[in-house]
Amino acid sequence: MAQDTTVPKPDFEYWLDKAIKWGQSTTLESQKDVCLHLPQLQQFLHQVYETLKHMDSIVAIQQFPKIGQLLGRLCWNPFVVGYDESQKTLMWCLCCLYSSEPQNPVELKANSWIRSLLCHLLSSSKWESNEAETSTFISTLGYTSADYYCHLVKNMVFSLVAELRGNQVNGLNMQRRDSGSRVNAVSLFCLPLITLPDLTPLLEALLLYQGGASKEILSSEFLEAVNDAFLKKKISLSESAVFSLWLRHLPSLEKATLHLLDQLVSIQLNSLEEVACVIKDSLLPQAASHPAIFRIVNEIFKNVLLETDGTTEVLTIIQVFTQLFLQSHQNETKQHKFPLKAYFPYHHQPLVTALLRHPFELPTTQWSQHLKHISDMLKALVEDTNISSVADLFEIWFLVAHFGEWLDIAAEQLLKAPVEPDALLWLLAFYYCPQNETQQRTQTMVEAKAVRDHLMMLFSPRVLSIKDLEAAVHTVRNIEQHCNQHLTTHLLTNFLLFSFGGHVVAQEFIYHVIEAADINKEVCSLLIRTAYRINRNGEENQRTVKLLNEFLQKLTLNI
């Protein structure tokens, strides 16, 4: 048989009369009276909550016109708030009176009053202005005010977290059908206190709460405020809480992605290690292990790339992000790992699989063959008569652009390994000139091959001299009148880094190109990316990286 939880009006009037008397008197007798009645009062408050939670806020106020007066007085009584579960029960009662969609100024004012009471209950700082009996009571217990209310807040947060996780305490159950509006109200009440360290467990519990509702139950204001505080490093959240935030609230994920891009563009970073550190610190690559997050972030990157006309800085960010995402995906347990095709569902899957293969999973002797395989598949797709629109062509190019490491290796193999160059030249020609027709791309390949052949002539056992380098630059310049500048710059950069003794003359070369005003950020990005790969492979010592850092400093002064 169900228990009757209706609040009798005589009981209500009795406790309201008690609350008024307790607030008017500060004598020892009055304090004793409060303490003697606390167990019965808590039982009454539970009964009030059980009644209110089945009512609309308007109906509740109509049936109990003085409910606000009662709860307001009890919230400011330190003996009531400090007793057992009373503080939490007062909070839930206030939540029941909160209008999720206020219709008039009276309801708006009531909501504002309720929020102020919740702030008062949650915030330890506001207790400092309490009346004299508060400090007397606390000192009798052997606490300072700061210690007492700090523990009070922590206990209240712990209790709320337990309820949000589905535990039942004293008959209160957050998993009821009507819990959605209550959770929404709690999320709103947290707004002024989001940066309070003691509140972090409650923030995380709210973000991870799954109520089974068809629509989002946490307030958008709460989600936006948590995201802003996280991006500004005002709060620290667990990875699972952050991922849940971005899955629940698309605007927060978009803002986090744009914030990362702004951060990377606005600060001077001297190496890809620094770029990778900033990206990894954002938690976006780790969150991208969820396909929905990856595809949204990827779409934002694509739009930014289009808006900036494919700048090298944005391309480099995308490529480093992709590498970090793949590392994070690899570290996922099999139980939680999504298949890689879930991240690129609309692309030619054999090509996706080949591009996703990490270079260091293969022996270096197989790199050229793997690149030829990629180039052949790509060529078949691009020259397919069904690929007619510019948008389709861009999508294919954008997929390839994620994997800059394979493009770097293609340029490296052209100069270091005895390979048939056509497939690798076609791959680079498509990457740097995706809009070209077949005939134009063939002409680009012919001219790029001429640059490559000239540079190969300088690869010899003897140490490279600055004159050799100047001659190479002069020849490349002449060919560049017809060939794509970025492609020839890529080949020239690799020549500089991989030729025998090239790093010895690189500094002199850098001075030369800076004085001639021939250098740009394209060269800068290629140098950084290539040096990063050399350093990770252990094929070169730190001199190359040190040289490139010095180069960047000079470049910054001359652009």
From TrEMBL:
Q: Where are the transmembrane segments?
A: none
A GO biological process this protein is involved in? nucleotide-excision repair
Q: Which InterPro entries match?
A: FANCC
What GO cellular-component annotations does this UniProt entry give? Fanconi anaemia nuclear complex
Among the Pfam families in the record, one is: Fanconi_C
Q: What is this protein called?
A: FANCC protein
What species is this protein from?
Answer: Nycticryphes semicollaris
